[in-house]
Amino acid sequence: MLRPLPTLAELLERASVVSLPLHTRFRGVDAREALILRGPEGATEFSPFVEYSDEEAAAWLAAAIDFGWVAPPEPLRDRIPVNATLPAVAVDAVAGVLDRYPGCRTIKIKVAERGQSLDDDIARVRAAREHLGTDGRIRLDANGGWNVDEAEHAIHALAEFDLEYVEQPCASVDDLWEIRQRVKYMGIPVAADESVRKVDDPLEVARRGAADVLVIKAQPLGGIRSALDIVERAGLPVVVSSALDTSIGIAMGAHLAACIPELEYDCGLATAALLAADVTAEPLLPVDGSIPVVRPALDESLVQQSLASDERDVWWRERLERVYRVLEGWSESTGRHAAPSEAATATATATATAE
Ligand SMILES: O=C(O)CCC(=O)c1ccccc1C(=O)O
Ligand SMILES: [Mg+2]
């Protein structure tokens, strides 16, 4: 795995910046921007959220390079069962969104959205449960939006809808630990996402017993091998999830999920269904509740149709260049470029701010 980075010129030469419109507003955006790279192993994606720092984005670049320039490990399965992802939409939009996820027996529902109330969450979760029926599973994702008391109150109010788990109810690892203790007796597990993705040490939450389940994303964890290493060391069940990537980034996640020995939970990799455009003619959309473990080829005419504005193209290329320099620094200090846990510790650069 110790191999030189492709040169910056090699990356930039093979880059396209796209902006894909969303069917439904998500994380406060109406379009997802991504920088697509063409590597010897196939297309790959660099798409840290625009507000992320260069230091934080370095793991995402390590992941992009790993997927495009190094063959992925041998998959253990050829399809990945996935959940529907329901953004914090109004009740009357719930059925329309869920119909985009054919066959999905699990729904992940965003709650605790800024500007909304617990009543909004209850109404959305109720509508989703009615749409799904009693057999399907419902998990919630608060993105750290509650304090411990608010989380306890909300989980009590939402428990009647039969919850599979609650993802990142509170922002800090301390608060996750506390809420996990408080709801343990209810049999509702707590999952950690930002507490794995946005911290210097992705294993801290597992070591401290602050979560029952880890949400694992390939790009922020430095790529497939680095994420597999974290999964192995954490010793907790995991849910591989997307970062609202294009189908290229989803393919990276699907390959990661395909390498995990035990997948007890449906994975959050159906989010191509939220995009109104994609960069491949074979988008990784759910069919019968799962997506295939494949590397879709870029469709160059679709890429052309979704190219970002010149201004955004320049912004992403400059970002790529700065982040590349950060990654070079990691390689010099650690002798490798694909292990954010070690590299971040070495350079003490990762941030722990809430999403
Ligand atoms: O897990 C899923 O169902 C889809 C992915 C998802 O929710 C997500 C996508 C982009 C950024 C953050 C998140 C998140 O899990 O918080
Ligand atoms: Mg989450």
From TrEMBL:
Source taxon at top rank: Bacteria
Residues noted as binding Mg(2+) in the record, renumbered to the chain: D141, E167, D193
Class of this enzyme: lyase
Low complexity bias (residue ranges): 343-355
GO terms, molecular function: magnesium ion binding; O-succinylbenzoate synthase activity
Entry EC no(s): 4.2.1.113
One Pfam family from the record: Enolase_like_N
Region called Disordered, residue ranges: 335-355
Record carries keyword DNA-binding: no
Family: Belongs to the mandelate racemase/muconate lactonizing enzyme family. MenC type 1 subfamily.
Protein name listed in UniProt: o-succinylbenzoate synthase
Gene name in the database record: menC
